[in-house]
């Protein structure tokens, strides 16, 4: 089913199509739109509350290794995001927009919905953290501070500011950046003033990190996950292609250098020992306040500012993801509505409501881990998207930032490993949720107005596979029917297509060809309509096959020409299949084609199915074996392939033969038993002696009258005798429920089984 909510390229196109003017919105540059929110999210609460703990448990050298390992993943992901961003016009939605336009709407939606949720829950987390950091100011005489109620108030204020104006939200981050900068300077000054000591060079996990290296790494890693905050503002940027790579990479570099210097300073401070650094006391001020100049007065404003900035980033980024999802028809379009200043007002308040609801969870530590996991799944997909784009190399992929595919793929693998190390259960659950969303969106058969890399990927993979396949010489062991089915009207003769699919076992190629005798100039305007009707008929029946409509001036010559040209590189059609003609004259024409097909090594399958379109019970398959011209090889193989299908499961294959004398029975039975044993097909042998008063046809009809389908060999008629032979075949076929005549013209005759 095709979704009636077709996505648009962006909100502007949607508004133009509906006749509404697009609200004007302020557009931001690299510094305010990307660098500021990214670097402030990187230099966040983890830096203040956990860096001392990291150094105290692992020592300075290993702490630096952890920073470099974690930052390398974000650096590579930043490069991959920059590569994708510089190859397209990045609209509203940031990471979701880039993934959906690269890998398609289904995978984009599978990432976009969790991305919206984790940005929304991040707003709750940061608001909760900000409330707890203010808790010491609550007068004791008033009783315990109502943290949840205060958190709701913080969310309402932040959501209100973000919903009113993105410009106001981003400008508020400038004084916050100053406060963070001053707190870092205060740390530098305090460490240098207090004196330096030799840093600890070995880990002491027994202090407060009994989980060891990977436990510390998992706790630290969320500190480097904030670099995509600026990408989330893509729809509000004046020049996303320029601002996203520059602002993102600059934020990653500044954050990494700052982390390295801060860890070295904490580890080298003479005022703090390893035990002091490793100790975590929620009721005590951050360890920075013991070292930094002016302690509390500079550290707390920086920490509060970092938390507030991260909260603003979530309040701005989450609604824009929801807006992009609405623009693409994945959620109700009402959520794409924007105010006069260009803000996604409804999406912003929906974000706020969900964030407030999450406060009821009380303890959000577990939620914080889920947020990190979902962000990491995003990093996996961003890197994977860039790698696939580089591998496929569509002509349209011309980014100004180029990243080798192996680098992006390594970043994707690294993020996946970190996900697993942080929380195995959350990793599996997050991936399962995204797979579920993908499958749901896949069932909706979303149609897009943009191109993505999937077609290019499958083209490149098909080309590689065909080149590899061409290197393998055909042999009997790997032979399977590649069927070219000539069907004048697939809609009314769907039983033929179904039979071809049963023979094919969904492993080879079935091509359904409608042959039109006439003039190409006259018939050309009708070709596309006929092809579409064929595809629709196959889709209704749940059958998978390639379709084509060919106009030929002559029926017989046309079949031979099409048969020679069909397929390439090891996937050429090797079996021509026909339905039963309406007249003996039509059957005679097919018999003349059979003779020509033998010269080009194309086997023939001629099927006369019952009026019901096929067998009813699917329980009995008879193969009449004569041992002549090797047709029996292919008949047995096709009977076996037919029995493998679900609807034919449990069918009995009987290999029958007719002899003239009773004394030949034992020898013939032994030969058939040996044949069945050698071909490893579960079948039963049945040797019949023809009664003197019965003809060959009468004997065969009597033996196979209950069979659902009967396989018979198709010898070549002598030239000029096609009409008489056609009459005999017609008489033979009329005595069976459904009949399949087989002519084996392959180069493996006698070897296939």
Task: Provide an overview of this structure.
The protein has 753 residues and is of the alpha/beta class. It has a 10-stranded mixed sheet, with helices on both faces. The radius of gyration is 36 Å and the shape is elongated. The longest helix is centred in the middle third of the chain and has 33 residues. 57% of the residues lie in helices and 8% in strands. It folds into 2 domains: 433 residues, Amino acid/polyamine transporter I; 268 residues, Rossmann fold (3-Layer(aba) Sandwich), CATH 3.40.50.
Structure summary:
The protein is α/β, with parallel strands linked by helices and 753 residues long. It has 26 helices and ten strands.
Summary tags:
10 strands, Rossmann fold, alpha/beta, 10-stranded mixed sheet, 2 domains, 26 helices, 753 residues, Amino acid/polyamine transporter I
Strand order of the largest sheet: 3-2-1-4-5-10-9-6-7-8
CATH architectural group of the largest domain: Up-down Bundle
Q: Give the strand content.
A: 5-15%
> Which oligomeric state applies?
single chain
Q: What gross morphology would you assign?
A: elongated
Q: Give the beta-strand count.
A: 10
The CATH fourth-level homologous superfamily of the largest domain? Amino acid/polyamine transporter I
- The helix tally amounts to 26
Tell me the radius of gyration.
Answer: 36 Å
What about the largest sheet? 10 strands, mixed
Q: Which CATH class of the largest domain?
A: Mainly Alpha
Mean pLDDT equals 81
State the CATH topology of the largest domain: Amino acid/polyamine transporter I
- Judged by helices, strands and strand pairing, the structural class is alpha/beta
Termini separation: 42 Å
Give the helix level as a range of percent.
55-70%
Contiguous runs where pLDDT drops below 50 for at least 5 residues:
1-24
Domain unit count: 2
């Amino acid at each position: 089913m095709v979704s009636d909510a077709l996505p648009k390229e962006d909100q502007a196109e949607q508004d133009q199509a509906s006749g509404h003017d697009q609200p004007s919105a302020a557009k931001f540059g690299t510094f305010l739109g990307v660098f500021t929110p990214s670097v402030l999210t990187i230099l966040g609460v983890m830096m203040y509350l956990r860096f001392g703990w990291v150094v105290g448990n692992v020592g300075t050298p290993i702490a630096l290794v952890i920073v470099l390992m974690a930052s390398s993943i974000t650096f590579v992901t930043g490069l991959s995001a920059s590569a994708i961003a510089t190859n397209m016009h990045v609209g509203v939605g940031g990471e979701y927009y880039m993934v959906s336009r690269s890998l398609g709407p289904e995978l984009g939606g599978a990432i976009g919905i969790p991305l919206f949720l984790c940005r929304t829950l991040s707003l709750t987390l940061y608001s909760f953290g900000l409330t707890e950091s203010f808790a010491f100011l609550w007068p004791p005489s008033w009783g315990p501070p109502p943290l949840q109620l205060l958190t709701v108030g913080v969310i309402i204020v932040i959501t209100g500011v973000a919903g009113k104006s993105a410009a106001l939200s981003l400008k508020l981050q400038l004084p916050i950046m100053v406060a963070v900068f001053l707190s870092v300077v205060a740390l530098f000054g305090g460490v240098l003033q207090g004196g330096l000591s030799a840093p600890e060079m070995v880990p002491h996990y027994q202090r407060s990190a009994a989980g060891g290296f990977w436990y510390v790494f998992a706790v630290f890693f969320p500190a480097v996950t904030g670099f995509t905050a600026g990408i989330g503002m893509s729809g509000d940027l004046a020049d996303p292609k320029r601002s996203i790579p520059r602002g993102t990479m600059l934020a990653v570099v500044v954050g990494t250098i700052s982390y390295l210097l801060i860890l070295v300073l904490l580890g080298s401070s003479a005022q703090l020992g390893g035990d002091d650094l490793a100790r975590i006391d929620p009721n005590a001020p951050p360890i920075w306040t013991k070292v930094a100049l002016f302690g509390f007065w500079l550290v707390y404003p920086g920490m509060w500012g970092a938390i507030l900035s991260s909260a603003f980033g979530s309040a701005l980024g989450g609604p824009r993801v929801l807006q992009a999802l609405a623009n693409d028809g994945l959620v109700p379009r009402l959520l794409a509505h924007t105010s006069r200043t260009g803000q996604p007002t409804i999406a912003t308040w929906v974000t706020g409501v969900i964030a407030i609801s999450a406060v009821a969870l009380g303890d959000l530590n577990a939620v914080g881990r889920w947020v990190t996991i979902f962000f990491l799944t995003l990093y996996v997909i961003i890197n994977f998207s860039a790698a696939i784009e580089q591998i496929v190399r569509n002509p349209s992929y011309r980014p100004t930032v180029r990243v080798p595919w192996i680098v992006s793929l390594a970043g994707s693998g690294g993020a996946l490993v970190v996900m697993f190390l942080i929380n195995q259960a959350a990793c599996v659950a997050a991936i399962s949720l995204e797979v579920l969303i993908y499958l749901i969106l896949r069932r909706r058969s979303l149609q897009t107005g943009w191109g993505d890399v999937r077609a290019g990927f499958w083209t490149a993979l098909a080309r590689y596979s065909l080149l590899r396949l061409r290197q393998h010489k055909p042999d009997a062991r790997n032979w399977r029917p590649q069927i070219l089915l000539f069907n004048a009207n697939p809609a009314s003769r769907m039983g033929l297509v179904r039979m071809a699919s049963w023979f094919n076992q969904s492993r080879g190629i079935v091509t359904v060809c409608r042959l039109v005798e006439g003039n190409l100039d006259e018939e050309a305007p009708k070709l596309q309509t006929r092809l579409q009707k064929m595809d629709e008929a196959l889709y209704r029946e749940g059958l998978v096959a390639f379709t084509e409509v060919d106009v030929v001036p002559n029926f017989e010559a046309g079949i031979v020409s099409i048969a020679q040209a069909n397929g390439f590189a090891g996937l050429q059609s090797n079996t021509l299949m026909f339905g039963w003609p309406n007249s003996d004259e039509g059957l005679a024409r097919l018999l003349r084609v059979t003779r020509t097909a033998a010269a080009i090594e194309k086997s023939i399958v001629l099927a006369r199915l019952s009026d019901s379109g096929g067998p009813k019970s699917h329980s009995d398959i008879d193969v009449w074996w004569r041992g002549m011209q090797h047709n029996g090889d292919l008949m047995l193989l096709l009977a076996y392939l037919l029995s493998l299908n679900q609807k034919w499961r449990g069918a009995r294959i009987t290999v029958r033969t007719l002899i003239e004398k009773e004394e030949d029975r034992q020898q013939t039975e032994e030969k058939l038993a040996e044949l069945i044993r050698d071909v490893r097909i579960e079948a039963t042998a049945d040797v019949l002696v023809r009664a003197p008063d019965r003809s060959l046809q009468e004997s065969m009809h009597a033996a196979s009258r209950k069979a659902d389908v009967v396989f018979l060999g198709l010898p070549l008629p002598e030239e000029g005798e096609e009409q008489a032979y056609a009459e005999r075949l017609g008489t033979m076929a009329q005595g069976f429920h459904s009949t399949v005549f087989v002519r084996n013209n392959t180069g493996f005759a006698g070897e296939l089984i």
